[in-house]
Amino acid sequence: MDYIKNPETIEKMSFVIIDDQVKADYGGYPTENQIEKAILRRVIHTSADFDYLDNLHISKGFIDRTLKAIKKGLTIITDTNMAYSGINKKVLEKMGCQIRCYISEDETARYASEAGITRSMASVIRAAEEAGPKLYVFGNAPTALFKTLEIYEKKDENLIGIIGVPVGFVGAAESKEVLMTSNIPSITARGRKGGSNVAAAIVNAILYEADHRYG
Amino acid sequence: MDYIKNPETIEKMSFVIIDDQVKADYGGYPTENQIEKAILRRVIHTSADFDYLDNLHISKGFIDRTLKAIKKGLTIITDTNMAYSGINKKVLEKMGCQIRCYISEDETARYASEAGITRSMASVIRAAEEAGPKLYVFGNAPTALFKTLEIYEKKDENLIGIIGVPVGFVGAAESKEVLMTSNIPSITARGRKGGSNVAAAIVNAILYEADHRYG
Question: Are A36 and A176 spatial neighbours (Cβ–Cβ below 8 Å)?
Answer without folding.
Answer: no
